[in-house]
């Protein structure tokens, strides 16, 4: 479904990615891992054309994403839950969801079933939501685009434990429904049992890919610092 091969990405003159390889098959959940500053967000920004890759290839189904501007990438079946959530603060919860709606199985009612808190807060301004509720809204907004691949950057970073569990519950449900997912999160305890495969980045390069069961203690020590 998604094939990223040897991408190199720069911020001005400064190179952040030196050769990232990553793939997601249909129905798979792939965890993109690595310590802080290793290039996870930059990889996601490259896929979405927000910080375009200068070299390498990014193919999504039949599309060559490097040839498309960011607004077109958002229309070809990729849904992004960005780091920092980026909800529209002055729109209501409902408006935040409707603004990205595209035809498909995900509707307002289904997002509200997945996240009942959003139904309770339907008419509130997004700016009045807690961080965890904003994260639910960001996930709901991405689902409203009916993406074939959902991409989550820092799915539960900085959220209260109760809310994190709600969000992991929703992610597990999405996985069970067959949603293809690429996810970044630091919580290995929640991530590893649900991921089908992991890809680890170090200093802007893919250094390891494999199934979670193969991620032994020495690999964790070496690349994840835990
Ligand atoms: P984190 O877990 O902290 O979010 P990350 O793995 O997502 O880290 P990136 O944010 O992709 O890592 O950063 C990769 C490299 O690119 C780092 O060296 C970082 O300092 C650099 N970088 C990120 N954003 C910018 C920017 N806007 N301008 C210049 N350099 C940047």
TrEMBL record:
Q: Which InterPro entries match?
A: AAA+_ATPase, ABC_transporter-like_ATP-bd, ABC_transporter-like_CS, BCAA_Transport_ATP-bd_LivF, P-loop_NTPase
- On the tree of life, the source organism's domain of life is Bacteria
Q: Which GO terms describe its molecular function?
A: ATP binding; ATP hydrolysis activity; branched-chain amino acid transmembrane transporter activity
Extract the signal peptide range. none
- Keywords, ordered alphabetically: Amino-acid transport, ATP-binding, Nucleotide-binding, Transport
What's a Pfam family this protein contains? ABC_tran
BP GO annotations: L-amino acid transport
Q: Which residues form the ABC transporter domain?
A: 2-226
According to its UniProt record, which protein family does this protein belong to? Belongs to the ABC transporter superfamily.
Q: What is this protein called?
A: ABC transporter ATP-binding protein
- Organism name: Billgrantia pellis
Q: What is the lineage of its organism?
A: Bacteria, Pseudomonadati, Pseudomonadota, Gammaproteobacteria, Oceanospirillales
């Amino acid at each position: 479904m998604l094939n990223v091969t040897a991408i190199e990405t720069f911020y001005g003159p400064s190179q952040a990615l030196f050769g990232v390889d990553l793939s997601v098959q249909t129905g798979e959940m792939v965890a993109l891992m690595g310590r802080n500053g290793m290039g996870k967000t930059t990889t996601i920004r490259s896929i979405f054309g927000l910080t375009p890759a200068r070299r390498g290839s990014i193919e999504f189904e039949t599309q060559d994403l490097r040839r498309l501007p960011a607004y077109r990438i958002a229309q070809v079946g990729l849904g992004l839950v960005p780091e920092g959530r980026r909800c529209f603060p002055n729109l209501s919860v409902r408006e935040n969801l409707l603004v990205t709606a595209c035809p498909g199985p995900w509707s307002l009612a289904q997002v509200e079933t997945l996240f009942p808190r959003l139904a309770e807060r339907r008419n509130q301004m997004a700016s009045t939501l807690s961080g965890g509720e904003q994260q639910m809204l960001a996930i709901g907004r991405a689902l409203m685009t009916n993406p074939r691949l959902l991409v989550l950057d820092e799915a539960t970073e900085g959220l209260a434990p109760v809310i994190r569990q709600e969000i992991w519950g929703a992610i597990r449900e999405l996985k069970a429904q067959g949603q293809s997912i690429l996810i970044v999160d630091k919580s290995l305890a929640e991530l590893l049992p649900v991921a089908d495969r992991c890809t680890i980045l170090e200093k802007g390069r893919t250094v390891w890919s494999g199934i979670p069961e193969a991620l032994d203690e020495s690999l964790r020590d070496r690349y994840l610092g835990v």
